[in-house]
Amino acid sequence: MSLFGTSTGFGGNTMFGNAATDNHNPMKDIEVTSPPDDSISCLSFSPAALPGNYLIAGSWANDVRCWEVQDSGQTIPKAQQMHTGPILDVCWSDDGTKVFTASSDKTAKMWDLNSNQAIQVAQHDGPIKTIHWIKAPSYSCIMTGSWDKSLKFWDTRTPNPLLTIQLPERCYCADVVYPMAVVATAERGLVVYQLENQPSEYKRIDSPLKHQHRCVAIFMDKQNKPTGFALGSIEGRVAIQYIQPANPAKDNFTFKCHRSNGQTGPQDIYAVNGIAFHPVHGTLATVGSDGRFSFWDKDARTKLKTSEQLDQPITACSINNNGNIFAYSSSYDWSKGHEYYSPQKKNYIFLRSATEELKPRTKKGI
After folding, report:
1. Could you give the CA distance from residue 146 to residue 167 in angstroms, rounded to a whole number?
2. Which residues contact 104 (CB under 8 A, 6 or more apart)?
């Protein structure tokens, strides 16, 4: 039986502003029903091919869950699947019928949402940290990046990889927007791949950040082609990097985020745990270990908004395909070690309207 209902989208702002608030939800955002029982590692909204909105979350409870997000904002749990280790990444097929899951159990699975069956489709010698679906004119496959220092490309119908590429170090984060892939590794490695015909290395980039890479997201130009990426680090900083900048010294830049003000003493500096670009406006959201999210306009180099502080880190975020819902997850990210872990604390996923707050501000004058 299919998991999919007949919801047709997400109307108005009727869902927002009704939730009870305390310090776990200071922004009064909608809480997703039945969140995972352990730290949430990844979030991903369904592609435009599906009517309505579906949200996938992977967690350290070894499970991946699917919800339908209704027009009213109500979330309906649809199904879940398990791995034998924590889920580290998730992605959708372009037609929205399948979800791919990457786990620390060294396997990746393909979850068919119509039949609610999951089968193993990839294997590495180490935990699989990233998974992405590639839809090219001449092929389609999944790309997995692992702590075994390899990138592998898989046809889901065959047990062996189509291609294996050695990475300079362990894969920490990656993003794919055809025909481009960006992989960030341990020891601040940064490799860009081109995916046309057969995936191959395009260029290596000296990292603009001085500390460990944490998250990466590709952004588009006005013609909707991938043109660069935002890279976040554990040191509260994001780099905006163009692949072929017209003026490298001017176009590429870094900015500080997820830090305390530090007016009376040293700044507290937090990891940037996730980055998501708005599909319409080209603005971006960042989420951090400080328990805040921020919205940014990279072109105007301005901050649009910073949230109130949640009582635990924000671990992941996602913006839906038409740009009107921002999802973010609140759970412990182990950044302060085990002594700060509280098993009594619940994990949450929140939904917020993304239509207005992520709009670029109109510029006054010339």
Report:
1. 9
2. 85, 86, 88, 127, 128
pLDDT of residue 263: 62
Specify the residue for token string 């700044």: 267
Q: For 67, list phi and psi in degrees, rounded to 5.
A: -125, 150
Q: Any idea which residue has 């075994």 for tokens?
A: 148
Q: What is the pLDDT of residue 183?
A: 98
| Residue segments in the chain with a per-residue pLDDT below the cut of 50 | 1, 6-21, 364-366
Q: Is the pTM of this model over 0.90?
A: yes
Contact 14, 325 (CB under 8 A): no
